[in-house]
Sequence to fold (500 residues):
Amino acid sequence: MKKLFLITALAGIMASCNQPAKQQTAVVITDSTKTEINVVDKGNVAFGQYFIDKTMRLDFNHSGTSREEHFAIDRIVSDGAWPGSKFVLIDKLELGPYFFKVIDNATKTVLFSRGFASIFGEWQSIPEADKTWGSFNESIRFPWPLKPVTVILGKRDPQTNKFKTIWTADVDPASREVNPADLPHANVVDVIQENGPASEKVDIVILGDGYTKAEMGKFRNDAKKLSAFMMDQEPYISRKKDINIRAVETPSEVSGVCKPHPGVFKRSALGVQYGAFDSERYALTFDNKTVRNVASQVPYDFMIILVNERTYGGGGIYNLYTTVSVDNKYAEYIMVHEFGHHMGGLADEYYTSSVSYEAQDIKLEPWEPNVTALLDKNNFKWKDLVTPGAPLPTPWNKEPFDKFGYEVQKQRDSLRHAKVPEEVMEALFMRQYRQEDEYFSKEKYKEAVGAFEGADYTQKGLFRSQLDCIMFTRHIHFCKVCQRSLINVMEQYTAKGPGK
Ligand SMILES: [Zn+2]
Fold:
C-alpha cells in the first residue's frame, strides 16, 4: 500500500528550563520535503556520559488514515529504572515497521535506537482506514538523557523498505513539561524468576486483565504456569538464566473482558477487548497509558497481558505487548506464538487463515527475520543455516496441505458464525493438528532448513525456513531461524560489556 505523508504541523513541548516561555517545536516531515537530520553514528556510546539510570517514556498520539500519518507529543514521564542493556544501546537488528533514534542535540550523535511496531500502523492497513480517521496513544521508552536530545522517528518506505524520517521531536529533560517523578505504585508484585540486575537480563512483566480481586490466586497460578511452559521451549530453555519474570497484580471489578462480536460488553482494568480491527479473535487494549503505568511498577523490556477468558484469542505486537486467553485449550500455544511476534518481530508463517490484513504485494524482501521473498537464492537471510543438499525453493506437498487448510478455515468460520461452544472449536483445532502431523511425517525435507513456499499470509512468493514452526502451525516448537532471531534480540538486552 502506497503511503503518503501529508504535511501537518505538530506541537512539541520542549524548552530549556532557563527559558520562561515554552517553545512550540513544529515537526513536519513528509515525502515531499525529505527532511533528514544528518546523524553521527559512533556505535554504542558510554551510558553514563549521556544518560542516568532511569527510563524516559514519551507518550504520543498517533493519528491519521491509510494515506496520512500524524504525531503529537502527549506527555513525557519517568517509567522507573532503565531495564535495558547499558552497553548495547544501538539496535542493529532494525526490525519492525517503525524505528526511532535518540540523538544528542549538540553533536547529532546517535545515543539510542530501537525498532517497534504500532497499533496505528496495523490499523492503517485495514479497509476502515481508507474511509475514516483513527487515533491511538502510543509510547517510546529510552534511557533518561542528561542533556537535550532529538527523537527521530522513521517508518519503512513502502517502495524500498528502508526507514524514512516521518517525525522529529526535541526533548529537553530539564523542561518543566518533562516529569521526572516516579509513579507511586500500590499493586502487589509476584516475582516468578529473578536471575540478576534488570540491565543485564531480559525482563518480562506479566499483567492480568479480567481477573477480579477474588481471582488473584488464579492470576498468580496462570502467570506461573504459562511462563514456566514458555521457558521450557527453545530458545528460552537454554537462556533461562538470562530472563527475569515479574507479575503485577491488576484486579478488575468484573471477571472476563469485552467481547463485542458475541455482544459481551465489559470494562476491565486494562481495557483488553476481543474483536480488535473487527477480527473476532484479536485481543488488544488501546488503553496505552493505563497499561504502561501499571507495568512501570517493575523494570520491563517485554510485556504479557493474561486475559482471563476461555474464548480463543490473543495478539502480539513487536516491542509493545502480547495478549493471551489463559483458559483456552491452546493458551500455551497462543502465549509462545504471540510472544514470538512481540519479542522477536517474527512474521506469521501461515497463510491459509483469514486474518485482518490485506494481502501483500511482493516486490521487496520483507523485514521480518523468518520470511523471505527469496529474491537471491545465493544470498538471503538464513542462507548460512540451509541444510546441505536441500533444494531452493525446497519442495513439499503444498497442494493437499493447502486444500485441507482452507477446508478447516471454512469450518472454523461457520462454527464461529454459529456461536458454538469453545470446546467444539478446540476439537476442530485438534483434528487439524493431527492431520498436519500426518502430512508432515511423509515429507522428504521435514527436518531440513531450506525455503518452503507459503508464509506471512501469502500462498506464493514468500518462503519460510522449515516445513513446520509454531509461527506456522500449533505445533509447539520454533524453527531454527525463529530460534536464532529470538536469541539475537535477547543478546541486545543482556549484553554485560562493550563489544558483546
Ligand atoms: Zn519459524
